[in-house]
Amino acid sequence: MRSLSGPDKSSNLTVGFIPARWSSTRFEGKPLALINGIPMVRRVYDRCRMAESLDTVVVLTDDQRIYEYCAINEMRCIVIEDECFTGTDRCASAVSMVDGARFVNIQGDEPLINPEAIDALVDAHQDHIGVSNAYVKVKDSYKQHDTNVVKVVKNKLQMAQYYSRLPIPFVQKEEPVFKQQLGLYCFSRESLERFTKLDIGPLEKAESVEMLRFVENGYDVLMVEVEDEGLSVDTVQDLKRVEDFLNAFN
Asked: For residue 27, is pLDDT > 90?
């Protein structure tokens, strides 16, 4: 992999990107927060390395502390100094430095990400559509009203119609199966390069859900059902929930 210049755009490599920023209004320094003694970014990286579909995995950060941790622990890492509105913007900033045809954005706050979910997403991805997004069916009722959990509705062609932090669709008669969008995306190089050129619309601004940028600008997002616990860490309380989940198996 070339990490500095001259990326080979014809390369058929599939690259895993892990955006990991330091600042967060709800949980500053989250990537280096310890989960049973192991920093979260390390847990995410190790899970990604287990995915058979990824040829390489790269952490993308804005912080020297995270970069130094990765360097000491032999984890590929690139510092992105550009101001990035979302994790996908950070991935788009890195694509010019990395060989590859497909890029998978794996959230740096999902320490239990299922490697098989990554493989399922990559396997279902279609380059002519350009963007694929994983989801799971909501099993825990608290997630329906948790605004940290993004819900999605899709059409019969499996394309995303809308994302919201509120429970969608609205329950008036028959109870629907709620679907949780995972922060797990697969992009063709062309689609990822396009992302930062698209207008940020009022829906993305209102919901703070980056995949709405494609939807609002008329591009399809293929939704792919996967198996995953869907336990992301947005707050300190979420960290405790992940530790409890891990401790239940020890």
From this structure: no
